[in-house]
Amino acid sequence: MAARRRQDRVLLPGEREGRRGFLKKGLLGGAILAVGGAAWLATRKTRPAPELGGPFQVLSAAEATVVLAAASRFIPEHWRFPGPGQVGVPRKVDAILEMADPATQKEVKRLLGLLENALAGLLLDGQFRTFTASPPEEQDRRLQAWAASRLTVRRTGFRALQKMVFAAYYASPETYGAVGYPGPPGAVTPSLVREPERRREAEQPAAAERPPEPAPAPRPRAPRPPDVPAPRPLEEEPAPRTGVGPAEKREP
Amino acid sequence: MSDRPATGRILTGADVRRDVEERPDVCVVGSGAGGAVVAARLAGMGARVVVLEAGGHFTRGDYKMQEAVAYPQLYQDKGQRATADQAITILQGRAVGGSTVVNWTTSYRVPDRVLAHWARVHGVEGLTPEVLAPHFAAVEERLDIREQPLEEANANNRVLWDGAGRLGIDRSMVRRNVRGCQNLGYCGMGCPVDGKGSMDLTYLPDAVSGGAKVYANVRATRIERAGRRATAVHGAVLDPRTDRPTGRKVVVRPKLLVLAGGAVNTPELLLRSDITSGGRVGRRTFLHPVTAAVGIFPHAIDGFYGAPQSVASQAFVDRGPGKVGFFLEASPVHPMLASTAAGGFGPEHQQVMARLSHLSALIVLAIDGFLPDEEGGTVSLRSDGRLRIEYPVRPEVWEALREGTKTLARIHLAAGAEVAYSLHQDPVAIRSEGDLRLLDRAPWEPLRVNLFSAHAMGGCAMGRDPERSVVDSRLRMHLLENVYVVDGSVLPTALGVNPQETIFGLAHWAAGHIGAAIR
After folding, report:
1. pTM for the complete prediction?
2. Domains, chain B, ranges and CATH?
C-alpha cells in the first residue's frame, strides 16, 4: 500500500500537480499501476554498474546506474570520445543534484525510477525489462519515446535528464579533445593574454595551435554488441537522418 | 544623512559572525544592473546605503574559464534555472554585480518606439528619450560603452556580418561595456582580466567609496511591513563556501527600500513576503525567448574565443501588426552550452559536437509583450516553497522563432556553411534554400525545440493604473510608499534589445527622485 501511494505522488520536474493522474494513465497505464505495479517492479532489481565511481550524496547506486546507462546512449561509444563512466558522469550528475532543492532531488530520483521501470519497457517495447538490463537499441528506443512523447511531462523528464548528462559530460575537460576545443587560454594575466590571442588568429588557417587529432584512446568500456552499427566516422558528411523529411535526402 | 562612515566596504557571509541589525537611509536588495547604479548614486548624494546580495563576491582570480565552475558559482540556481516544464533554460547571474558579471556586455539604450508603446498602452508617464538621454550618456561614459570595431569581431560574429550582408539584411556592430577587453570569449564565466564594465568593478566600488556597505552572501528572505510602509528586510547569511545558511541573520530597517533582485527574484521576494499587489506581482514576465541555428563550416570558427557578441541585426523588430518581432545576435560556442542547446542524442548529437570548432551559433530572440492581449509568463511559489517560473509560448512567438530560424539558416548558408541545424530534438538540417520549408513542417512546441532566455524582464510592471501595474512611472510601488523597484522587473514589455543598459539608465534616472524622497 505504501509503495502504491508513492507511485501516486510521482511528480516530474516542472510537472503541474493537476497532471498526476494524467501522467499515471499516459505513462504506465492506470490499470496496471492500480493493481500494484510498484510492487511488481520491485522484483526487477537494478544491477549496479561496476564503474560507477561513487560515493554519491543524492543518488542511490541503482539510480546512478540508470544515469550511466542513459549517458552511455547519449554519448555512445566512439574512439574520440571518452566514455561517460571514465568522465565520471554519474558522480557529476550527483554533484549537480546535490546543489538542488531536496524536492527537486526527489523529482529527479523519481524520473530515474520511471525510466528504469520494467513496466514502462513492457508498454513501450513489449519487453518486461528494466532500462539498464535492456540492449542498447532498446534503450535508444525508450529514450526516444520519452523525447518525442505526446505528453509534455515525459518530454520534460527527458529534457531534465538530457541537460544534466550533457552538462556533466561536456563541461569535463577530459572531453575537450573530442570536440576540438583547446580549452581556455592558459596563464591569463592582463599582460600575457594579448599575445596568444593574436597568435591564434594568425595561425588559424594552419591550425598549428590546435591540438593534434587525439589518438584512439584505450577503451575500458564493454565492446558494442555486434548487431549495433559502429558510429560513422565523424569527419564524414552527416548522413541522412530519420524523420526529418524528404528534402533531407537531396544532394547538398 | 549624518554620521556616515568615510568609506564603506564589501562584507561576505564569512565576515558576519553574529546577527546584525542595520538602520540605513536606504536598503538596496540586489547588486546588479539596477541595484549597483542606485546604490552608487544615492551614496554619492550622501545617503547611508546598505546593499544585500545573495551571491558571492568574486574577483578576477576566481574566474577559471571553465563552464563546470562558472555556472554553479555565478548563475541563479547553479545554472539550473528553467521554466517549470524545463522548456526554457533561463540564464541569470548571481554574484556581487549580478548578471553584469556574466553577461556578454551588449549595450543598447531602450528603443524610442518601446518608450512610446509604454506611454500609449501602459500609461507610463514622463519616460521619454529626452528625459533618459543624459542618464544614458552618464552611464555610457562611466562604463566605457562603445562600438566593437569590425576587425575585432570573432569568426562566429563574422558569419552574421557576412551572411546578413550578402542577403541584404541590415546588421550593425554592437556596443559593449568593456575596457581593456582582450576578446578572450569568456564573458559568460566572469572576466578573468577585469575587462568588463561590470557592476562589481564600476558602480559598486563607487557606492563603497561613497560609504555604502555591501553584504555579499546575504539572501533577503522577507520584507516586513506596517500599513503602507516597509519597515524591515530580513536576510539569511549564507556560507560563501557552501552557499548554505549559516544561521546568522541580517535585519535592515531602512527609511526607503529599493528592490533590485531582477525580474525573477524581486517578484519572488515580494511573494514570499505576501505582497502580491492584487495578484499582479510575478505577472507579465517576459523572456525574449531564444532559439538558435548552428552552422557547420568547412573552416575553423573557434566560436569559443573572441567577444561573444559584436554583431546584431535589428532588421526584423517590426514585422507588422499581429506579428512578434525578433532580433538576431551570436552566442559563444563553449562545449557545455552547445551540448545542452543542440537537440537529440547519440551519434547525431556527437557528430555535431565533434565539429564544435567549425560550428557557428547564431540566435534569434523573440520580442514578447507587445501583442494586445499578451501576458507573458509568471513567477510564483509552489506549495513546497520552491520558486516556479512558467512561460506558455504563444503561437505568434513560435512563428517568430520559426521565421527567425529560417533567416539564421539562410545567413549561415550565405556565409558558407555546409549545413545549418535547428535546435529541435529531431534537428532539422538545412543544406539549401529549398530545405527551409522543412522548418515549416517541424514541430514548434515546448520541448521539441530547445529554448533559452538570458533576458528575464517584467513581473513588477510599471504604469499609471494601480489596477494594472505594480509600480508607478517613478518606480515606486503603488502599494507601499517607501518601496521602489529598480531592475528589469519594472519593464511592462520586453525591450527588443539586450536589457542591461536600459536598466542602468532607468536606475540612474530613478536614483534622482529616490534620493529626494529620503527624509
Report:
1. 0.87
2. 9-65+94-100+197-281+460-516 (3.50.50.60), 148-178+288-453 (3.30.560.10)
